[in-house]
Amino acid sequence: MANLSLSVKRIRLEPHWQMLIWLLIVQILVAFVGRGLVPLGVLIGADLSLTKAQIGMLPAGLFLGQALASIPAGFLVDRLGSRKLLLVLSMCLGCGFIFSTFFTHFWSMLIFVVIGGVGYGAMHPVSNRGIIYWFTQTQRGTAMGIKQMGVTLGSALSAVILLPVGASYGWRTAVIGAAMLLILTGVLSFFQYRDSSTAPQSNDQRLSVFYKSMWSMIRNRPLLLVSLSALGLNGAQMCLNTYLVLFAYEKMGISLFLSGLLLVISEACGSFGRVAWGVISDRVFNGERVVIVIVIVIISALSSSTLALLPEHTPFGFLVPIIAVFGFAVSGFNGIWMNLASELVPPEQAGISSGLSITIGSLGVIAAPPFFGFMVDLNGSYTSGWFFITVLLCIVFAILLVLLNVNKKRKARVSERAI
After folding, report:
1. Whole-structure pTM value
2. Domains of the chain and CATH, by start
3. Three-state DSSP class for 375?
4. Across residues 19-41, what is the average pLDDT?
């Protein structure tokens, strides 16, 4: 018993776990605010009289901001470290969303959603860099999975908390309250988080060096293939998150509460998946990530096809296991993706590498949900939307097979040089 107490005490005192906790807390609140657009979409849509395509443009606007910010944020975090930017980006997302509630015109609101998306998206390379320097190669899959679990956990909490609050007091009240909580968390993280002593304290790279690094990464074929795979998976994930509540409420005739609960189940399983897939890649596959992503793609494609074939008024209890498996897979891949993007370059370029990958991956989130919604508006049915996701994932599967082949050849060349 005494040994157990000492072990627990030692874990609590280890700095890298303490810093991971702060990265996780910030990530949860960032997702709680940013991904709150998804469960609140049905309320925002009713208030502003939006079409399904316009509802899909809300998360697309968030991720447009992410795409615009990720590469500059990666450059900045490689120069400044994570601590200062945790505060700045929390305020950017929080203030952007607070201002978005002041408007009743859709396009005016969308502009501030994009501004908030800058803070949302830039947080990924900032927190990823913290993981790279605080943890070793064989620990990063688990650590990144725990940190990325904050995205789905925050999204699930937004469905549990923000949807009922929005239904009772209005979606604007829900958004403002969540944004203020995020800003407070950003202030606390500034005083509690610190960068690893192994990380460069400052990096006075000139822009010419930045452009040279960018060019070398654009020529990094495995990084581009990973990013293109993430483009498809991100699009599929956000389509599920954006339209699940509407799908269950409108097609299946399930109550708004139970429809929101399905989103909670999806995101909770995704949270578990982000840790589980990371642990599996670390301990079973010894850091091999691509095979894990292939398995995720197969499971996700089968789940999407199943939803497409379900008849109307399918019972809630029948939907639960399908959504749980779908969420576990398609919402659980992000930690593996972040590790792949960060590990394909030297550690001092981890921020900009993940920034580039996030920028490319964000294109799927920008394009897929509005296109999914357009297909539903056009056909009056969700079936074509779910089959669209299946086709998208089949393309990702093909890209991953090419990536496996490229990695195999690269490892063979490295072995020949060693000999």
Report:
1. 0.72
2. 13-196+210-414 (1.20.1250.20)
3. helix
4. 88
